[in-house]
Amino acid sequence: MKNCFVKASLCCMLLLQLFTLAYAQQKTITGTVTNKTTGEPLPGVTVSLKGTLSGTITDGSGHYKFNTTRSLPLTLIFSSVGFKSEQVQVSNEESNNIQLSSTEILGEEVVVAASRVSESILASPVSIEKLNATAIRETPTPNFYDALPSLKGVETSMQSLTFRTVTTRGFNTNGNTRFNQLVDGMDNQAPGLNFSVGNILGLSELDVASVELLPGASSALYGAGGMNGTLLMTSKSPFEYQGLSLRLQSGVNHVGKQQQPYVGFIPDIAARYAKAFGRFAFKLNLCYLQADDWQALDSTNYDRLNGKTKAGFSHASDPNYDGVNVYGDEITTTYGTSAGYLNGVAVSRTGYREKDLVDYGTKSLKLSGALHYKFTDNLEGIIQGNWGKGTTVYTGSDRYSLRNFDMGQYKVELRGKRFYLRAYTTQERSGEAYNATALGTLLNETYSPSATYDANGAVTGGWFAEYATVYNQARLGVFQGAPGVKTDLEAHAIARGYADRNRLVPGSENFNTAKKTITERYIGFGTDRNGAKFNDKTNLYHYEGFYDFTDHVKVLELQAGASFRHYALNSDGTIFDDANGRIGINEYGGFVQVGKKLINDRIKLTGSVRYDKNENFDGRFTPRISGVFTVAPQHNIRLSFQTAYRNPTNQDQYIDLPIRSNTRLIGGLPALISKYDLYNTKGYTQASVQQYAATGDPTKLETYTFGKFRPESVSSYEVGYKGLINNRLLIDAYYYYSKYKNFLSYLVLIQPTQPLASDPSFSRANIFATYVNNPTDVVTQGGALGLEYLIGKWTITGNVSYNDITKDSKTLSNSFNTPKYRFNLGLSNRNVYKNLGFNVMYRWQDAFTWNSSFVQGEVAAYATLDAQVNYRIPKVNATIKVGGSNITNHYYQTSFGNPKAGGIYYISLLFEDLLK
How many helices (H) and strands (E) are present in the chain, helices listed first? Predict the structure, then answer.
């Protein structure tokens, strides 16, 4: 023991000496950057040491400081949007002051996402959008993520105040699984629930360095899933951005009291602290938000068999009423001849409004931290963790109350000037999440079962039997509670009132007790089952590497990368078909990219190819070819052919979930199809059952035969132009044409359990919803035009986008879910008068049809106006910001079945660069 202690002490002393020696060799370079015209300090200027990864960002007073072991003299590069970049040689450690000349030139942004290497946004080979730290700070929306729809061609689906998903170029869905989102290189899609968690688990706005968005196919560089785009969010380095930043924001919503009788209060606080000590640096982030969520209150009557809305808003006009945001009324029966006057009549249970079932007290807590160590100026190690927990509402095949849902991402990375090695894991925990439809159904079954049976399976009673008995008595005038012969509507009202006599009233003690019991029991059958709660503990493990060989090859640019991913599905049978054990899935892939500049760098050609393999599917190659042609200085034309593909999601493959009466959502893998005997006892397609119901002709019924389950793919052609005119007008335009093969579509099958003559209305049939490949190609096209114009300190922006589906399937729904036209207009000035700035953004989009596994319906056209005014106080590095999103408070909806959103009005106080 003593020898061990001595050895450990000697090791510690040696490490301390090495650290001291390394620290002593370091030099601290400091200085100030100011505006050459006004003399004012310039915050946010990038200061980098030429030829290395070292550098920093100037603080609110224009000061900069960073450490290096390189010998003097050094060459520093100073760059900032709107100012001429400068390279300066410094020979001293201190007082290296520099002045930058204002140019107000657009198009100087540098992007990485388009090619995985740094390049001018003007020379990008494909369409790309970017928000830098300054643009993020000045966005008029309450947070930067809500500002993404102002980017050219971006579409979103908002399911909650804290839950918004993003996509581009069509096929907008609530989960948007055709769109990748990466946070510091980590895929932030929930591996079990299969939706990108957006900014529920994401970056604090104080820690966002940049956001880059690639619209369209991007699998060639970023792997399976990037069918319709990729979003890359990059956090700030603790070496470059040091000190304490605080944001105290307070907002209100529900101002018009359309959804609740009082105004909602939204406290939103964030803090970031970063510090560098020689080669070591760390950062910590904390964010917390709570609010009264937007409420889904649509009581429109919905016909689930035909997938469309119908007349009525309650059972008063339709005994088979099924409200869009009312749950439990999906349970229905069609009475037979023994029901007397009700023969052939369909009746549904009385449901509960969503507001009585889900938790609208939305919350979001985000914690993150990172340790960085620079082994040399060009080699950095990173250990990072992001963790988030919250309560929100998500829309899948039903509405899900994600209460105390949490997810963590933990990463180790080694990064050099030309390479990186990265490993991370995503740990998903469903917390107290539950299915609102299942809750509504089970509340009904708690106070009165829909039907009771004897030992032989014959109906002996229940809610529907009581309803029929009382209805017939009322029609005959013999019901004791209401004497006299009644009309059809009167009899239905009397029957429902009697059958609901023991109904659990929302807010009552009995209702709350039953709700608590059901939401604490898991979905399924057995001990602690027959409830509405999920039990998801799915994990993801990902490993990848990248190397840029350009310095070694010299004659061309060459990059390569590879990755391996393992999913460990673990829902205990509450989501997946994993009641008998966990499910493991392996994926691997790699890519190579080659680029070459020709004719005095006026032409750049780039080609890449990627191969990916999922153990359940055949491997796929996804090539990309692009060319950028500089027709004149600052004027570029781009051409590209891009491919992408995506494997069916984990839910598409393995889900096994009851979602409503007699309906089960199952994965498309052969094992699930066989489990429910759909290969042999084939189901009728929903479309053919609709035709049969309309005509009464049994020959209209068509069974479905399953084929091979495959990944879907897309081939996309794009031509674009990006140019700068007179250093004042930036133009970006593109047109694309995309063809999808093996498109994954949602299919509903009605599997009869009895001969057609015994059950002509299929009231006792099994209903299965699953995912299959569309046998016909799906073709889309579209384009966009973006303009940015500078007039002095004023910036005028505008963009318009067009998306259309030109070839659709006649039998399978493809859920394009996208307005044909949308546009954004903006006006801003960062310093209109003595540190006073503002930003205004107007957004409009056309009406369109929304089609999902939850509901189908029309989304009305809408317009919103977002605005903010800010005042900077340089002496204390503070900014006061007052603004609002949708300031006209005109409630709008992004997707049918989801809540409508009104205005949010806020005031925030931001402090930066404290305690440096």
Answer: 11, 54
Of 799, 879, 881, the closest CA to residue 838 belongs to 881
What value does the mean pLDDT take over residues 49-75?
83
With H, G, I as helix, E, B as strand and everything else as coil, classify residue 370: strand
Structure-token pair, residue 530: 């027959």
DSSP line for 559-595: EEEEEEEEEEE--TTSSBS-TTS-EEEEEEEEEEEEE
For residue range 851-890, what is the model confidence (pLDDT) as tens digits? 998 999 999 999 999 999 999 998 888 999 999 999 999 9
User: How are the residues of the chain apportioned to helix, strand and coil, as percentages rounded to the nearest 5?
Assistant: 15, 50, 35
- For residue 120, CA distances in Å to 111, 126, 554, 636, 656 come to 6, 12, 20, 11, 47
| pLDDT tens by residue, 12-34 | 444 444 444 444 457 888 999 99
Residue bearing tokens 């002393």: 13
- Which of 330, 336, 342, 315 shows the shortest CA–CA distance to 459? 336
Please state, for a pLDDT cut of 90, what percent of the chain lies above it.
Answer: 68
Q: Is the Cβ–Cβ distance between 848 and 876 less than 8 Å?
A: no
**Per-residue pLDDT reduced to its tens digit, 488-519:** 999 999 999 999 999 999 999 999 999 999 99
Closest among 676, 680, 649 to 664, alpha carbons compared: 676
Give CA–CA dist 305/508, Å, rounded. Answer: 34
Q: Is 870 within 8 Å of 852 (Cβ atoms)?
A: no
Peptide bond into 73 cis (omega under 30): yes
CA–CA distance, 657 with 576 (Å, rounded to integer)? 7
Distance CA 694, CA 149 (A): 41
pLDDT score of 8: 43
Any idea of the CA torsion for 664, 665, 667, 673, to the nearest 10 degrees?
Answer: 30
Place of tokens 């106006």: 865
The chain-wide mean pLDDT, for the chain, equals: 90
Residues 608 and 645: their CA atoms lie apart, in Å, by 15
Task: Tell me the three-class secondary structure of 740-796, residue by residue.
Answer: EECCEEEEEEEECCCCCCCCCCCCCCEEEEEEEECCCCEEEEEEEEEEEEEECCEEE
Q: Which amino acid is at 224?
A: A
Report in angstroms the alpha-carbon separations of 27 from 92, 243, 373. 10, 20, 16
Instruction: Decide: 345 and 319 in contact? Cβ < 8 Å.
Output: yes
